[in-house]
Amino acid sequence: MEVEVWKAVLLFAAGVASGWINVLAGGGSILAVPVMVFLGMPGPVANGTNRIGIIAQNISAVTGFFRKGFSDFKLSASLAACASVGAFFGAQAGVKLDGVWFERTLALIMIGVLIVMMTGFGQKPVEAGGRAKNLLIGHLLFIGAGFWGGFIQIGVGLIQLPILNRVMGLDLVRANMHKVFVALVFSFVSLAVFAAQVKIEWALGLALAAGYALGGWLGAHSAVTKGEGLIKKVFYLALVAMAVKLLFF
Fold it and tell me: How much is the pTM?
């Protein structure tokens, strides 16, 4: 029991850090999943359990956007429906990814996310309040984004944002508004698939979710904005270290 409490405390702390990083820098899930793997969870279990935290964080994010007057549930819902189809099939593949191949895939994703985050690929200035364009292409692309989200989740926001921003022409505020709603919906779908096929660590997942929620709240309300540069540098170093660990040790 003591070991389980220790794991819950560690995952809560990882969730706080992940939620904070998600708000200030992005890509926080890439910290939580390796922590679960290092705690001894099989790849599919860690992959599925992480969805509990993602759901908690996105409920908070969607609520926050709504309270600030940002919502377009019609477009969000149609994009989420497309992404959910992809997430269902992606999760079917994700439950089968285990062992050394899960760790190698995770490491390569870490490197890819690091490159995308450092270059800012996929983001461009767009006039605020503009209407969405290229709706058909955007919805088709969200099927693919949903597949990736269902498959492994990590980095899916970095796939969604270029679609919403570059393809559909939405400013980054509204792009993020849609992103969190879509991720919330398809995360329920992928969690259901994982729960039906692997043993989800619900208690540890709730500890992780509480950390995600608190970390997201702290990040959103943080007044120390000058610390973002340092956070990103530390985060980059942590990504490299974890990727090396997963690939070679």
Answer: 0.81
Cβ atoms of residues 12 and 206 within 8 Å? no
Choose the weakest-confidence range: 58-62, 105-109, 149-153.
105-109
Q: Among 94, 91, 24, 15, which Cα is nearest to 50's?
A: 15
| pLDDT over 50 at 147, yes or no | yes
Q: How much is the pLDDT for 38?
A: 85
Q: Positive or negative, the Cα torsion across 64, 45, 34, 82?
A: negative
b/e map 68-96, b = 16+ CB within 10 Å: eeebbeebbeebbbbbbbbbbebbbebbe
User: Would you place residue 93 in the very low, low, confident or very high pLDDT band (cuts 50, 70, 90)?
Assistant: very high
- DSSP 3-state of 7: helix
- The 3-class SS string of 108-153 reads HHHHHHHHHHHHCCCCCCCCCCCCCCCHHHHHHHHHHHHHHHHHCC
Q: In 3D, which of 241, 16, 219, 240 has the Cα closest to residue 117?
A: 240
40: exposed, middle or buried (Cβ count in 10 Å: 0-12, 13-18, 19+)? exposed
Residues whose CB falls within 8 Å of the CB of residue 73, separated by 6 or more in sequence, listed in order: 181
pLDDT at 66: 86
* Predicted confidence (pLDDT) at residue 69 exceeds the cutoff of 70: yes
CA 163 to chain CA centroid, Å, is 16
